[in-house]
Design goal:
The chain is α+β, with helices and mostly antiparallel strands. It is 28% helix and 28% strand. The strands form two sheets. Strands 1, 2, 3, 6 and 7 form a five-stranded antiparallel β-sheet that branches. Strands 4-5 form a two-stranded antiparallel sheet. A hairpin with a 4-residue loop joins strand 4 (84-94) and strand 5. The chain is elongated and about 60 Å long.
Amino acid sequence: MKALGFTVTFHSPFRVGTGYASDGVAAALDRGDPLPADHLKGIMRAAAVELLGTGHPAVVEVFGSPRTSSPWAWSSAVPSADWDFTERHRVAIDAAAHSAKKEALVLGEQAWAPTARFAVVCAGRVASEDREDEHVLILRCAAAGVHALGAWRRRGLGWVGITPDDGPVSAEDISRLLSIRSATL
């Protein structure tokens, strides 16, 4: 079973919301799992689409689709130190009046740690060893292509760098990825 490890370095706090309010906070976090596996998979998939192109068959093969499951399983991020939870306000501005809109103040939670780790494990079947090597390349490059995660990224939250445990993506890796991209165009 192939396992890949990744380190997330946080350059700012982040916010992956639960979608519901909690105890006076309009935009709450899941304090038990502030950076869940499904979010990590989603941002890596989005980066892979940016790198390989929309509708590329390798993206579906690696990340799955509504019809096919992914042979890879993501873990949630585990921080190097305890998560530091704080609150942050956000105000909606009225474009005409250039002032805060009435009742448009949002109190949201955010989390931070110096670094966190997560894993991607091959839990399913990949057609061949060569295809598995391509999957690993796509996963490594997609992770390196992620520079922001969570919500409110344009408000200064969620700036990150993700590094594969087996070293940074190289020029050779990029050349191989470009050949995968052009092979099916």
